[in-house]
Amino acid sequence: MSAAPSPRPRRNVHEWAARVDKLVALPEIYWLVRDRLQDPQVEMRELGRLIQQDVDLTARLLKLVNSAAYGVPGRVETVTRAITLVGLRELEYLLLAGVAFESFARLPIEQINMASFWRHSVFAALAAKGLARVAGVLHPERLFIAGLLHDMGRLALCLEAPHEVLEVVQRRERGEEVCAVERELLGFDHAELGGALAARWRLPEVMVDAIAHHHRPGEARKGYLEACILHVADVISLAVDVQDDQRLQDYCDAEAWRRLRLDEGVVRTVIQDALMDFLETLELITPGSAESL
Predict the structure, then answer these.
(1) In this structure, how many other beta carbons lie within 10 angstroms of the beta carbon of residue 56?
(2) Which whole-number Å values give the CA distances from 146 to 49, 118, 151, in the listed order?
(3) Residue 286: which of 155, 168, 141 has the closest Cα?
(4) Which terminus of the chain has fewer CB atoms gathered within 10 Å of its CB, N or C?
């Protein structure tokens, strides 16, 4: 009788996040702005001058602030005005989302359909913002950013574990649950790796916790409400993508649904609002993507 296979050792998710962080290499301008944001006496004009050194980043920031997805009043023409309207913390999150997407987009990732990935992330971000408003969250735009970043762990796995990702895809097609397979193969799942990456990027603990537990919101501690929002937003985005309303019932965590006090009418409104802003936001985040739909 042959011996049972020994369990695979759990790998250190933070070491993996550190390696991915080096591969992604967020641009120096982000860290320069981030360091200046630590100074309570920093002036808006100084931050504006710093950001304007990067023409692409400036353009993306202004487009996103002026988009329906972000919804600041009036037309914003300068970076300094944008900072004044959104605030220093929101500026930090907006910059991170912009440079993270741009950095990942430059890397060769072949294991997943990237166009589908961007669509899912953008729609989940818009749904997360809508759900945050329903839940009465202060500054719901931060959930928009968390929604954009919630699946970065999937891209990180493609960079660090391409063979395992292909096995996950194959086993998912046979009906196995993705996160369970990832934990079997690696000792952690893509949500945990995304949370570890968010921690390296110095996001607040609440957002780190929510990203790390968006598939298992009941295990979140510091960001339970936010994890519930990201979880439901993630499921909504998947359901809309495959046009299957039943997916909400099959995959949504019952406690998260109850915590957000949702019903079909509320979710329908969240979806409709997200659909209105989807194409514009997708084009802002990944230029050219909307044209291919």
Answers:
(1) 11
(2) 26, 14, 9
(3) 155
(4) N
Q: 236, 143 in Cβ contact below 8 A?
A: no
Looking from the CA of 110 toward its CB, the CA atoms found within 13 Å total 3
Place of tokens 């929604």: 147
Q: Are 76 and 58 in contact (CB under 8 A)?
A: no
User: Cα(90)–Cα(94) distance, rounded to whole angstroms?
Assistant: 6
Tokens encoding 184: 């079997």
Contacts of 127 (CB under 8 A, 6+ apart): 147, 232, 233, 236, 237, 270, 271, 274
pTM across the whole model = 0.88
Instruction: Return the CATH superfamily for domain 13-292.
Output: Hypothetical protein af1432 (1.10.3210.10)
Mean pLDDT by 10 residues, the chain (293 residues): 46 90 86 86 86 83 78 80 80 82 82 89 95 91 91 93 92 92 95 95 93 96 96 94 75 93 93 92 73 57
Domain ranges of the chain: 13-292
